[in-house]
Amino acid sequence: MKASPLQKLIVFVLGWGAALLMFFPVAWMVLTGFKSEIDAVHSPPLLIFHPILSNFTHVIHEGDYLGALGNSVGIALGATVLGLLIAMPGAYAMAFFPNRWTKDLLLWMLSTKMMPAVGVLMPIYLICQKSGLLDTLTGLVLVMMLANLPIIVWMLYTFFKEIPGDIIEASRMDGAGPLAQLRIVLLPLAGPGIASTALLSIILTWNEAFWSLNLTSSNAAPLTAFIATFSAPEGLFWAKLSAASTLAVAPILIFGWLTQRQLVRGLTFGAVK
To answer: Does residue 270 contact residue 249 with C-beta atoms inside 8 Å?
Structure first.
């Protein structure tokens, strides 16, 4: 049944309305970053104001923005690479050598993502403290990797399941071992899925704030913890806080926009039969 012009108009308006509603907080944050502190708390909110750049220069030069940016990049890449190295053999084993416990194991791994992180805060904090990993990049990389590992394993498992088992069996008959099968067969065939898994892991790690705030103070603080430094006992500096938030989310927004085609391609890998 062909949609009428009225139905198309309603869908168009609802779609753009939802998109603008989701984008509004980001746009308001960016605008507030260009306001003075007085304009930022003005009531009613000002849409026409004199823009300034002092908030951004203050954040960059006095707030160690570049150090926090480097920590975020290192943590995101380190947790993603380490997670893929651990998850790929596990996903390979569960996809091509399943047993009766495979699905139960996958469901158990995913169920850990439903548990509030605060429930394991004290044990992880004490482990990091006793092992000297508190406020270190290594500690955050390990914690972030473990937090995202269930999703990484599940996604790789679904991508590997789309590869015919006959191809793996043929490579095994040709003398290829497990590592050779991963490198020669799985990587080329499941490349889009692996890439999208890596991109999603980077985004999740970059946006993680709970562990950053509780396991770091200054040395290994990423951008999520860096934003929290722009609050003071006498109140929030909304303009500087908005400028810091804009600088914190800008890299991952640009990264997501540049890689959106690869991300969508990977997430839809094997969806069309």
So the answer is: no
